[in-house]
Predict the 3D structure of the following.
Amino acid sequence: MIRRIDELACTGCGVCAMICPGDVIEMDEGKKARIKYAKDCWTCFSCELACVFKAVDVHPFRKPKPMAW
Amino acid sequence: MNKEKNLWEIVKSDVLVIGGGFGGLWAALRASGKNSSVTLVDKSFAGKSGHSYFAGGAMMVLPPGDDLDEYVYDITLGNEWLVDQEMVTSVFSESYSRMKDLEAYGISFRKRGDKYTWTLARGTRQVKNFWPEHATAADMVTMLRKVALFRGVQVIDHVYIYDLAKDEAGNIAGAAGLGVKDTKNYLFHSKSVVLATNSGSYRGHHLACELQGTGPFMAYDAGARLKNPEFHYINIRPAKHEIEGSGILPAIGAKWVNGKGVHFMKDYDPVLKKDRAPVFKIVVAAAKEALKGNDPISIDVESLLPEERERFRSLQVSHGWMPILFEKCRREEGYDPLLDNIEWQPAYEANKIGIDADIRCRTSMKGLFAAGMARELGINPFTGWSITACTWSGCQAGDSAAEYARNESFKKIDFHEVGKSHEDFFSPMYSKAGKDPDSVVNEIQKVLFPVDALIIMKEDKLENALNQILEIKEEKISELSVKDIHNLIKARETRTMVFSAEITLKSSLMRKETRENIYYREDYPSPDNKNWLKWIFVRKDADDQPVFSTEPVPFERYPFKPDRT
Ligand SMILES: Cc1cc2nc3c(=O)[nH]c(=O)nc-3n(C[C@H](O)[C@H](O)[C@H](O)COP(=O)(O)OP(=O)(O)OC[C@H]3O[C@@H](n4cnc5c(N)ncnc54)[C@H](O)[C@@H]3O)c2cc1C
Ligand code: SF4
Ligand code: SF4
């Protein structure tokens, strides 16, 4: 699940918010990327891969859900 | 009338394509090549969302010299006879040309010297899978998006489509949507529509479960017929995170083990495949082990041959997100998924419900065409079949939709109906006291995720699950309450989930048999070829209720026929 966007490293290019399939990231007034709906994160790493400024950090574990048993 | 129109940002084109994965992108490309103006709309970013972008990229292809009949036979057997053999024939007949198209667009497939290398598709005797250089479909869909733009397709990202629009004669004439980022109301006015949204899931444990493709349910609402509601795709993956290509591990020596350290597959598929059995069998076996109290299930990677492990690393853990995942597992969680055994979990992955369509991907609704997994494309999710079949259906639907548009004029949209569906879609914004969609999704998950609901199926459990779903439908769905657009979309998706669960459970109660690689009813453990060489369909009646019907598989038209005893 996405856990952090480094505000200092973020240049506000908007790429992560544009490609996020879960509509998790928003560009805020100050033109920085902000995590808005973390619990809807797909844990797909697209944002981390796309950010050339290395501002995004996604943890490999997905959000816990009701289990199979 | 003008007041109604003013509410909308109107986008007009001959053909509208909804969804930008393999199905939608191919449909848009093909339609644009036929002198039609084409708009492609996606709720996220076409070519970078949906299953296509995250897929491994294996494609089943019939190369020149191979026998088409053998391929059709293998796929028919893998679907235990319940697949349209005419469709399978058409899919493979075109598969090599589509791979060549991709090459012409700049995608390279693995070769040794000037010869393609391929792998045998799991669960088949003959069918070949061809692989793009980096074992990822991401490059392919990214490229298809570029080609579509180059060909003049108008691509509109971040618009969620919630309903199809009709003309005054009741034929499909566009769709209504909401801008996810710009919050505008969009009305797409077109002569024909291709639905390519994929099918749905329940936001489950795997990456693939996150996409809620609502297209088949929009088609159902508009009056189209859905097929295969009783089938679903079950899979087994690491419990906490993805591993792309994890299906390959048993093929290179990894073994399934239960909580007692026993290699249990030898008891379930002793003769043939054991750990390499088709995924459906492994999922059912793992679920049974768990119900016996033998959990957790894991995959023994310590027994991998070192050279196979390193080959997997160099092929799969070398690009995209896999190196990041491996690095973080190592650094932060203290293990390497290829060296240390971790827990795996069986789970419901995605619906197999699709829109019923003919061989040219025309649906029963005039003006409506279906592509990708939103169209019914068989049951067995063999690696490599889905991309090839989604590609095929995209091409068929794109050609058919353009042809239809060429012979039609723009019809007047029925704004009264569009207004009603707009109001209905927005209603959770005006409800103050209702439930929030997340809590309802959680309730649905609690009903459907236990392995003895939809993996090990049985009459009493199915009935129990159905009653709980109907209760959720009665008491909670009409009362959803949200505060923003993001959650408004979730509210619609939640409603679709409840409906999809209802028809899946009802139709699973109907099919009283087991087919070993696609469908497991514990209380009816054998195939019933006498009564169940049939497909189940569902459509809406005049009172908005789902009505189910069955039709025999038309073997009289097909090359291969089963033994009916
Ligand atoms: C991890 C993974 C690996 C896979 N590996 C392989 C493989 O190696 N080989 C293989 O053959 N298959 C593979 N598959 C399966 C295959 O990728 C999919 O079946 C196929 O890509 C589906 O394509 P599609 O066009 O039907 O849908 P998708 O690619 O899912 O596209 C649907 C699009 O519709 C959009 N959409 C949905 N609803 C709406 C709406 N209401 N309004 C607007 N837009 C909407 C979505 O945003 C999405 O972009 C894999 C799947 C996954 C998840
Ligand atoms: S991609 Fe990186 S730099 Fe660009 S907005 Fe996102 S976090 Fe900021
Ligand atoms: S990991 Fe994927 S879903 Fe999650 S925030 Fe990043 S891009 Fe969005």
About this structure: The radius of gyration of chain B is 23 Å. The mean pLDDT of chain B is 94.
